[in-house]
Amino acid sequence: MSKKKNKRIGTVYSTNPDFDYQYESEPEAELLPPQQQKLRVSIDRKQRKGKEVTLITGFVGPEDDLKDLGKLLKTKCGVGGSAKDGEIIVQGNQRDKVVDLLKNEGYSQTKASGG
């Protein structure tokens, strides 16, 4: 069963075989310009079997833009990672490098924290 079917607005019965049910759609977050993004870069070891990752949080915008930024950071750092649920994970302790890269990309309110 697809996720779409779980987001039905109400119960509808139809005998029309061509009936197309309208699903409730979640509004995408509007992308803030880089200089308004308040990104936080930290090192995280929790639930990662002791391995360090660089965690970037605070991104406001569509999931596609988050993934694009994540891909840029992973490529520039030469490591793997993921971007989902409003956060970017870059493998290893890359905090200082990530902060510099984000500031060079125009994310002027980026701050390193924790870890």
Automatic annotation (TrEMBL):
Start and end residues of each SUI1 domain: 46-106
GO BP annotations listed: formation of translation preinitiation complex; regulation of translation; translation reinitiation
Keywords in alphabetical order: Initiation factor, Protein biosynthesis, Translation regulation
Superkingdom: Bacteria
Gene Ontology molecular function, alphabetical: mRNA binding; translation initiation factor activity
Keyword Protein biosynthesis: yes
One Pfam family it belongs to: SUI1
PANTHER family xrefs: DENSITY-REGULATED PROTEIN, DENSITY-REGULATED PROTEIN HOMOLOG
Family: Belongs to the SUI1 family.
Name recorded for this polypeptide: Translation initiation factor
